[in-house]
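Our preliminary data section would be incomplete without showing what the modeling component actually yields. Below, a chain of 99 amino acids is followed by its predicted structure, encoded as tokens that our downstream tools consume directly.
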Amino acid sequence: MEHALSILMIALSAGLFLYAGLIALDKTMALVPKSHAVGPKDKKAYARQFAKVLAVCALAPAAAGLVGLLAGNAVLFITLIAGFIICIWIGTRLMKQVQ
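Predicted structure:
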């Protein structure tokens, strides 16, 4: 049970990568939550960019899980928080390209 959080972070990351892959393959707004509130001009491009943002956000728990396996839970949380801050910054820059 020592590495339970690391395994959970890796599983969360895998789930986010699968979800991003489904959106990227489908290329429709059907799998994007609250898609009725967004009015993009090109819906396929928006779905692709949303999948990219999800994939980038999935990198934070993946990195935290791998670091947690090697260094422990305290470093896992620090890596996770820093990773999400970086991912939010990258994600906002990616989504500005579509709108």
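Residues 43-71 form the longest helix (29 residues). Residues 4-96 form one domain. Preliminary results of this kind motivate Aim 1 of the renewal.
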